[in-house]
Amino acid sequence: MRKYCILIFICFIFGINQLYAQENPLERKISLSANNQATKDVLKQIEQKTDVKFSYNSEIINTDKKINIVVQNTKVKDCLDKIFNKSIKYSVTGNYIILFEDKQINQAKKNKWIIAGTIANIKNGEKIENVSVFYTAKTTTRLSNELGYYSLPIVSNEKSIALNFSKSGFNDTIIFVKNKQNSIDVNLYPIEPVKIAEIPKDKYITKAPVLEEKFIPAIIIPQQTVINSENLKHINNKKTFQFSILPTIGTNRNISGIITNNLSINLLAGYSRAVDGIEIGGLFNIVKTNVRGFQFAGLGNIVGGQLKGLQIAGLTNVNLQKTNGIQIAGINNVVWDNVNGAQISSISNITKGNMYGYQFSGFNNYVVQNLEGIQMAGFANITEKTVTGIQLAGIANIGINTVMGSQITFVGNFANSGFKGWQIAGISNITNKKSEGTQLAGMSNIAFEGLKGIQMTSFFNLCGSSVQGVQFSIGNNTSLGEFEGVQISALSNVVLKNAKGMQAGALINFVEGDFTGAQIASCANLCLEDLKAIQFASVINYAKNNNGMQIGILNFCDSSSGISLGLFNRVKHGYHVFELSYNEIIKTNISYKSGTSYFYNIYSAGIQPFGEFAWTFGYGLGSKYIFNKIISTNIDVTRNHLCYDNWWINNPYVFYKSTFSLDIKLYQKLHLTTGFSINFHSAKENNEQTVEFVKSSNHIFFNQNEKSNKLQQFWGGYFIGLRI
29, CA 20 to 30 Å: which among 66, 135, 487, 578? Predict the structure, then answer.
């Protein structure tokens, strides 16, 4: 039994030794500490603590090199990596670890060196700062400092390499450097400025800013990367894929500004020369030149060149050159050049050049030059030049130059230069210069230059120069220039210069210049120059020169070659005569004749102060024919009321008188007049007292006929008087 136990114990010990012997010596754990000790001494410590043996060629491995190392419970392999800095390979045979040279690593170290030097201006010897020293084979670059000094790491086994020295304002220089050459100084030739004739700037175009100087790029992009992209802009490298966290922290490092990517992924933000494909950014995508394809950014896309494709951003899209495609942004889209496509945002779309397509915005759309397409905004659409298409806004549409199309808004439309098309507004339409088309507004239409078409509003129409067409307004029509057409207003029509057509206003029509047509108003018509038409008002008409007809209660003019019909008519430079006369019925009569000599109004009154009391008043029309400076004739027709013994209150005696008179000038304005009259009276009821009074007054009585209580009288009369 004892023999079996001893045999089992021996087998166990042998098995343990075999297991330990089979374990990889590189995987054994060790703890040690060495301070400035030779490498061979440290290796002996490892041999003692791990029961391994090292085998190496001392001519290849420098074991006299002093090292410092501290490890705790660390694998032998990891410990050796620290000692030899991963420049040695390991091979295990039993309990032996063989150390030999890693030719690839050591060869790379042999092929690595640093080249340095200074860069100066060849003309004046001044050192040049911020020169890009570019090793094209490895896309490695460095910038010279303020003293013109540069230092560039090189890895190459070539006999010579090419270095590119580039600086904006200097000629690019390529220098070939020998392998292991550590120092080289470079002189650059400055570029002489070329004078170019100044091209007149379009006042509507603002020069696009430098991409890297804008707010976001200036913060995100390191200055070294910006300088390199400018110095090396003649170089355009292309890559299928790039990934970056931030500009310079990615696969393209600090030369990202000279690389065109097909697929670009930016975890936070990226910067590249161009994109030809797809770019996706967590926050911002910044592209120095052009984008062709698709861009998506959590916050914004900023492109310094042209866009052809689709841009989507949670905050903003900013393009500094032409855009052909679609921009979609949570806040706004900005293009410093022309847009051919669509801009869609919740706040605003801004285009510094021409807009060909569609703009949709929750707040406003702004185009610095021309618009051909559709603008839709919750607040305002603004186009500084010509609008060809449709503008729709909740507040206002503004075309600074010409609008050729339609403007539709709940508040106002404005076209500064001219308008051709439709304007529809809930409040007002305004055209600063020529307008052709139709304006419809809930409150007012204003065209400062001219309108050819129709203005319709519930309150106010105004045309600053001329109107050729129709104006309809419940409130007022005002034309500050020439007018040809029809004005209809519930309140008033006003034309401050010449006008042709018809004015119809519920209250007043006003023309400052000449008017040819018809003025119709419930209150007044005013024409401050020549009237060559008809004025009809229930109250008053005024024309400086009446060459047509005035019909109203009160008619006034300075001069007249036409006709004024009303209760009172006055021509300032016309026919004004006061007449004192005696006739067959009333012995004392006075009358006033006002108008023109060929057509005037007569206002008369008379009284019988002696004997049986009676009095008369009347109104009529007359005309004068002048033979020469002394003799003339008058023909007057009047309607007269005879008031006798208060009978006129209930049943006045009304008769009509036609008078033919001879006028003889006595002295200056004093004239003698005499003639005869034909009188007629007709009444349903017989007023015996008045009839008897008339009979007793008339010496010549031609006819009296009484039938069915109806009285008719017809007689001849006479008169004599003085006129002044």
Answer: 66
